[in-house]
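ESCALATION

Customer reports they have been waiting on this structure for their group meeting. Please prioritize. Original submission:
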Amino acid sequence: MRLRINHVLFIFCFAFFPLFSLAQVDGEEDVLPDSTDIEEVDSVEFIAEDNLEILEEDLDFDERLASYLDSLYQKDLKLGFTFDSSIIPGLQFYTIWDTIVINPYNEDLTNMDVSVPIALQDDDDCYFFPPCKGEITSGFGFRRWGRRLKFHYGVDVRLYTGDPVYAAFDGVVRVSKLSTDYGYVVLIRHYNGFETLYAHFSKLLVATGQTVRAGDIIGLGGSTGHSTGSHLHFEVRFKGEKIDPSRLICFPESRLFQDTVFIDKSFFVHKTAVAKVQAVSRYSKFHLVRKGDTLAHIAYRYGTSVNRLCQLNHIKRTTLLRAGRKIRVR
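Update from on-call: job pushed to the front of the queue and completed.
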């Protein structure tokens, strides 16, 4: 009797186990890949506001991680187009088409001896569209970053997270990725020879190699990368060198100043000023104030005078020195 029962159980398991196994496999195929894909896409498409400070403060952020996340995100941006190298724009100015490095050209235009005409808009097939409408919160030029002097190579335009950002001119997307500094960034090479860069997106809507027209939506505004709030960081470049976008575009009125601009070395004089500041910075030396330090003690230690210290630090002889403050001594 016991042998017969065992025999029946064996037949039952043998007959139905493949069905249970098959059902389990089908369930995994239906659920697990989708769950994994959703998790990966969510982690790449959106950076929560709570995590932005971590990204901003982590100076050792691994670029390999950014490339990995970018590769995952690009899988979700297969839009059905095939890139044709014959449509690379600006071949009269460029010999390189790099889809990873933002500036692979290493050009120095501060001493260019020619004037290059660039058509911004014409009656044929060259159009302009404002990248976004909003108040300029930071212009092109030097600005203070804490106690440091930094050069801002674009214009910042205020917008809300999720606001659309548009391609300024017709062209082809050369870079679309996650960058340490720029966050989600898009760089477009245009047929007129310019390149424009759009940074700090919350979401990318174009992929590398995609053809875009002026006015196409290329991403949604945000505050990713080294950013302190939602805005668009917008740059205009020629052969990799940045120029002031406000010399081309009247942002308050969302229009061009002129249909054609002539690029010469005057567009790059800021590089000379930046080089001078960097040279001074390398030459400069600072003293970290400790408890009990006075200007007289510091001057004696570094072989200078109290008057010189006051000039270098824009302070008075009676200024109270607090511990932890940096005093420039040369």
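Sent to customer with the following note: The chain is about 30% helix and 25% strand.
Escalation resolved.
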